[in-house]
From TrEMBL:
PROSITE patterns: ATPASE_E1_E2 (PS00154). It is a multi-pass membrane protein. GO terms for biological process: phospholipid translocation. Belongs to the cation transport ATPase (P-type) (TC 3.A.3) family. Type IV subfamily. This is Phospholipid-transporting ATPase. The chain crosses the membrane at residues 98-117, 123-139, 320-342, 362-384, 591-608, 1038-1056, 1068-1088, 1108-1131, 1143-1163, 1169-1195, 1215-1234.
Amino acid sequence: MEQLHWVRHRCQHMMETNTERGWCRALHGQRIKSPLDSHRTPQRVPDRQRKVFACCGPQQHDYKAVSKNYKCNAICTTKYTLLTFLPMNLFQQFHRVANIYFLFLALLNWVPVVEAFEKEITMIPLVLVITVIAIKDALEDYRRYLFDKKVNNRVVQVFTSTTGAYTDQCWKDVRVGDFVRLSCNESIPADMLLLHSSDPDGVCYIETANLDGETNLKQKQVVSGLPLQQVECSPETFHSHIECENPHKDLRRFSGFIEHNSGVRVGLHSRNLLLRSCIIRNTEKVVGIVIYAGHETKAMLNNNGPRYKRSKLEKHLNTAILWCVLLLIIMCVMAATGHGLWLRNFRESLFSVDKDTSPAMAGFYLFWTMIIVLQVLIPISLYVSIEIVKLGQIYFIQNDLALYNEQTDSRIQCRTLNMTEDLGRIQYLFSDKTGTLTENKMVFRRCSIYGVEYPHKEQGRNERCSSNVLTDDITLVELGLMTSLLSPSTQDLGHGGGDKEVLPDPEILRKMNILCSPMLTRSVSDTSSCLELSYILDFFFALAICNTVVVSSASQPSHFVSTRYLQYNIKTVQYIKNSIIQRKGEKKKQYLHMYINFLYLFIFIPHHKVELLPVEGNYCKSEVYLNGDSDWTEMDVEDSLLEFASQHKNTDEQLYEAESPDEGALVHAARAYHCTLRGRSAERLMVDLPGIGPTSVQLLHILPFDPDRKRMSVVVRHPLTEQVVVYTKGADSVIMDLVEEPRGKEIHTCIRNQTQQHIDMYAREGLRTLCIAKKVLEKEEYETWLNKQLLAESSVENQQELLLDSAQRLETNLTLLGATGIVDRLQEDVPETIEALQRAGIRVWVVTGDKQETAINIAHACRLLNTNDQLLTANCASKDECAALLEDLKVKVKHESNISTDLPPVEKSSPSLQTSFILVIDGRTLDWALKKELSDVFLELSSSCKALICCRSTPLQKSQVVQLIRNQLDVMTLAVGDGANDVSMIQMADVGIGICGQEGMQAVMSSDFAISRFKHLGKLLFVHGHWCYFRLANMIHYFIYKNVMYVNLLFWYQFFCGFSGSVMTNSWVLICFNLIFTSVPPLIYGILDQDTPADTLMKHPELYQAGFTQSMFWITVLDAFYQSLVCFFLPYFALKGSDVGELAFGSPINASALLIILLHQVIESNTLTWIHMVVLVFSVGLYFGFVLLFSLFCVCCSPPTNPLGVEIRQMSEPVFYLICALTTVTALLPRFRLFNVFQGILSPDMFQSLIGMHESQQKMFFFTF
C-alpha cells in the first residue's frame, strides 16, 4: 500500500508541476519534498543486485567499500602471457588424442628394450607439428594483445575529485562509479547510465554497429528526475545512488532504479544505458556514470570469440583413424607373434639375444617396438594439413565474383573456418521468408479504412495524383490548397528511390475533395460520412506516429532533426480565420465555412457544426458556429489561402531511419497523404498535419513491439482535445481479438468483418498485413494504468513480466481503424534456386512468422509448391485435435505413397504423375506438435512430405523444429535467415547462413557464412560445397592410402628379418617420408582440385549428393596393400641373389614408393595446373637431394647402419632406374581402368550420372593459372 501512496503522490506532483511522461523531476537540482518522506521505509534489496555510488561527493566512503568488488575497465582477450604460454599451449595441444599418441611413442622409444630408432628421431614429427601450431597460436595471441593494448590506452575524459574537473584518462583506468564525459563521434568506454545530454530534450543517439552490426542509430534518454538539461550535470552535487541487476548478456534488457537524496526512486531502463563499444552520434556532449566496466560490460560478455562447430567429416575422420589404429595393432600383434615363433624355432642360428628372455617376453617387447616402427600409419600431419586446406578453400570462396553483390558492395563472409566441407552434404534447408526469400524492401500497396478497401498503384508515372480527381468545378483556391496539402510531388515522397514512393489512391483523394466542395455543409451533416473521414485521418495519423523511426533531413545532421523549437502550431488555423474575418461580403459565408470544417476534420474533431474561437494558450477548444457579417471578396480569400499554402509547403526532404522496413513503409504511406513525421524527441513528436502544418504531439509512452504481444503502441496526448489516446498496430490475429464490439452499434461489427475480408485477400496476394487501432482513455483510466506502469518501470526484479502485463492491460477494447497491405517482392532467381535445391535432393522448409495465406502464396511464387502438389493444412484449436489430425494426415500420406510405389515404371518416372505433399502448419498447432508425446508423429509426417511451411512461428519454435530434425533423423541441416528472430535457428543448425539484409546484422554475426542474396546458396552449395567436400574426403583417403602403403613396405620386410623390427631404410628417411616428402602435393590437391566443372555442377544439381561411402575407405586400403606388395616384391625378386645390403635393397623401394604415391595423386586429380607440376617436381627433387646429401656426408647418422655412399652407388646403376620404372607402372596400372569400374559398382547412380555428362569427365589440364 505504501508503494501505491508513493506513486499517487508522484502522479499528483506531476499534474501540479506539468512534468512530462509521468516523471517527478527535481528542477535545477532542488529537492522535491514529499509528505511521505517522514514515514516511508526503504525497500529491502536482494544481495544479488548491484549498488553503484558516485566516486566523488558525500558517498565516497560507500564508493570505496563497494567498488573494490567490481572489475576494472581494462580488458584482456589474450589466452597466454609470457610465463603461461608454453605450459598452457602444450596443455591445449595435448587435448588432441593424436598428439598424446605420438608423445607416448616418443617416450616409449626411450625404453631400451623396445627402442627402434635413435631417441631424438622419434621426437621430430611431434616437435615439428607442435611447433608449427604453437607459432600460429602465438601470432594470433600477439595480435589480440596489440588490439587490447590499443583499446585499453584510448583516452577519455573522467571526473576526478582531486582536481574537481574532467581530466584525460586511459580506458583501463576507468572504474565503476566514475563520471565520464563524451563528445560526438567518441566511443563509449564502459556501460554507463546517461545523466546529461547537450540536447535540451535529454536525448542522445548512439551507433551500435560495433556491438550488433546495425547501422541505424538508437535513441537514448537521460534518466528522469534529474536537473534540467540546459545545465551540465555536476558530479560533486550528485547525491543519488543506483541499484541495478548484476551483469548479463542481454543487450536489450536493463532494469534498476536510482534513488535520490529525497528518497524518491526512479526506474531505469535499457534506453538509459549507453553500452561499451558504441559511438556517440549527433550529440555534442553527454555525461554518464559507469555501471559496468571491463569484462562485466554487455559487449565483453557477448564476446565469446570465434564459434566452433565440429564438422561431420571430422567425425568420419576419427572413425577412419580408429580403423587405422586397429590395423596397426593387428600388424604389431602379427609381428610380435612371428618374432616369438621365430625365436623359439631359429633362436641359436639367427639371433644373439639374452637367453634369459623367453620368446613370449621377446614377442611382447617387439610388439611395442613395432608400434614405434609403424607409427607413420597414423597420419600426424593430417590434422594440420586439413586446417591449411580449409584456409585455402575459404580464400577462394570469399574471392568468388559470382558471390559478390555489386549493389551492396558485399561479398560472402566465412565466419567459421572448419565448416566448408559440410556445405557439400546438406540434406535439410530451413529458410525464413521475409528478407531471405524476399527483398524485405517494403512498399505500401493496399489499405482498408472504415471497412473500405483502397488499392495503390505502383510507381510508374510522374504526373500529380490529384490531377486525376480534380474537376472543372474546383476553383483556384481549391486547386492551390489541394495541390499543396494532398498531392506531394515525387521529389517529396520519400528517399532512396522509387521503392519507398507511394502514389495516393484516387478514391481517398476524392473523399478528401468533398471537403473542398461547395456542398460540404450538406455532406458533413451526414454523421456516417463525417465518421468515415475521421477514420481516414486517424488512420494516417497513427501510421505517422506509431513507430520508433528516427528522422533526419538534408539540411540537418544525419539521422537527426532537432525538436528544440517544437511548439503547438495552431497559428495556421488562426491565420486563416483572420484572413476571412478581415474581409467583408455576406455571399461567401457558406463558401468559406467549407474551409473551416475542412481544417477541423483534419484535426480530428468530427462535428458538423464548428465555431472557431480565439486560441487559448496552446489549444483550440469548444465547438461553435461561424457567425458574424463580413464583406470579403473571393480574390482576397484566394490570395490568403494560397499564401498560407505556400508558406507551409514542404521544401526539405525527410529521411527516415527505421528499425524495420515495415515501419519505414508505413511512415512513407502517411507522408503520401501529407501526414508527415518531421522529428522526434524522447517526449514529443513533430508531425505535419494537412492544413495545420508542423504540430507538436506529446508522447507519453511507447510500448515497444515484442514477439509475445505481436504489436506495439504509443500513448499520446491529443494536441487539440488534450485527450490521452492509444494508437496500436500489430498482427491481425492479435488486434482482432482486442477490438471492442459495442452493443447496438452494428457499424463496428460491419467494419471488423469487412476489414477481415480485406486482410484475407491481402494475404492471398502475398502481402504483409498489419491492423491499426486506437483507444481514447479517460483521465481516471489513464491514471490507474499509469500507477501500475510506474511500478513496473521502477522494478528491478521481473521488470519485463510486469511491463508486459501493464501493456496488455492497456491494449484492450480497441477501436479498429483499418489494415495495411505491404508488398515484399521475391529476390531475383529465388524460384530457380529452390527448384535446383530440390533437384539436388535437399528438403526445403520455410519457417516464418507471417500469415498462412501469405506464406502459401510465396511458396507458389518461389516454386516450392507446384500445381501437382497436394496441400495438407494443420490448424488446430486444441492438443487433442492436433493429435488426431496428425494421425489422419500421416495415414493419408502413407496411403498415397503406397499407391505411387505401385505405379508402372513409366508413370513413376513422370513428375507430373507423382503426388507430393506439402504440410502447412500454424504456430499454435506447431507448439503442440513439438511436445514430446506428439513429436514422433509430427516427425514421421513431416519427413514424408516434400516440404513443410510453418506459419506464425516464434523464434523458439524455429530452433525447436531444426533441433528435432537434426537430432532425430541424424541429417545435415542448414538454416538461413536475415533477422534477429532467426538467430536461434541459425545457431541450432549444423550450418548457419545469415543474409545481409534490411534488419540489421544479428543473423550475420551469429552465422557460419554470410551471403547477400538467397540465390548465392546455389553456387555456395552446388559448387564450393561439393568441391570442398570432395577435395577433403579425397585428401583424407589419400593420406590414409600413402601411410598404409608405406607402412606395409616395412611390414613385408619383417618376414625376411625374423620379425625383429629392423627396417631396410635409414630412420631419417623413414620419419621424413610422409611428414615432408609427400606432404605438400595433397595440400595443393585439397585447395585446387575440381572433380567437375562449375558450370556442370550448376546445370546438373543432381551431382551435389554424389559423395563417398564407407566402402571407399576399404577400397583405398586394399589398393594401398596391392601397391605395397608390388613396390616391395618386384625389387626383391629383381635383386634376389645379389650381395646388396639392406640399405641398398631399400633404396629402389623408397624411390619407387615416392613415385607411386605422387603419380597416384596425379591420376586421381581432375585439375592439373602449373602449380601442381611445380610441387610434384619439388617433392621429387627434395627427396633425391636429401638422400644424396645424406649419402655423401652422413657417416654415423643412422646407427647401427652406415648410409655413406649407398644412394650414390645405387643411383649410378641403370638397374636402379629400371626397377623404379617397372615397379611404378605395375603398381599404378589398375588405377587407369579397374578403379572406375569399382566406383560404378559401389555407386551406380553417381557413376551413371557422370558417364551421362561427357564434359564432366574431361580432365582439365591448365598450365596457366
